[in-house]
Amino acid sequence: MDPIRTRPTAAPAATIAPERTDLPEVRDRADHDRGWNVVVWNDPVNLMSYVVLVFRRIFGYSEEKATRLMLEVHNEGRSIVSTSPREKAEIDCYTLHRYALWATIERA
Fold first, then answer.
1. What residues are paired with 84 via a beta bridge?
2. What is the domain count for the chain?
3. Cα Rg for the chain, rounded, in angstroms?
4. Rounded CA gap, 84 and 64, in Å?
5. In CA terms, which of 38, 71, 101, 107 is 20 to 30 Å from 91?
6. Is 78 inside a domain boundary?
7. Of the candidates 79, 80, 103, which has an alpha carbon nearest to the alpha carbon of residue 91?
8. Considering the domain boundaries, does residue 64 fall inside one?
9. Secondary structure (3-state) at 54
């Protein structure tokens, strides 16, 4: 029987180190995501007093501010009721839906 023969292995290829690169410039991204607006749309179903109550309950607005926003919804068809980071705006929009108000979010 022939002994097990092993093939000679080739020498490993030389590894070339990558060139050194500087880190990219880090810019302030504060203007990148200025926030998201929560928009409430007019609907023919809810009473004005109910809309004021919802704005006060969800956002903690005063009677005057909630009434002003409600009148803006009523007269102009929509009103931006808050501006916040996207996750908070989505939660606020969902909460308004639970109170049967028509609401969406849009970039600020």
1. 36
2. 1
3. 30
4. 21
5. 71
6. yes
7. 103
8. yes
9. helix
Q: Evaluate if pTM is beyond 0.85.
A: no
Mean pLDDT for each 10-residue chunk of the chain (108 residues)?
61 70 62 84 96 98 98 97 97 98 97
- In-domain check, residue 4: no
Cα angle 36-56-58, degrees, rounded to a multiple of 5: 50
pLDDT for residue 69: 98
List the structure tokens of 64.
Answer: 């005057």
Residue 58 sits in a domain of what CATH number?
3.30.1390.10
Give me the count of residues in the chain.
108
Q: How far apart are CA 1 and CA 75, in angstroms?
A: 100
The rounded distance, in Å, linking the Cα atoms of 26 and 42 is 43
Question: In this structure, what token pair is assigned to residue 68?
Answer: 């002003």
The boundaries of the domain holding residue 68 are 40-107
Q: Extract the runs of DSSP E, i.e. beta strands, from the chain.
A: 36-41, 78-84, 103-107
What is the reported pLDDT for 14?
A: 73
Q: Which two tokens stand for residue 91?
A: 């939660």
The SS3 of residue 91 is helix
Please report whether residue 102 resides in a domain: yes
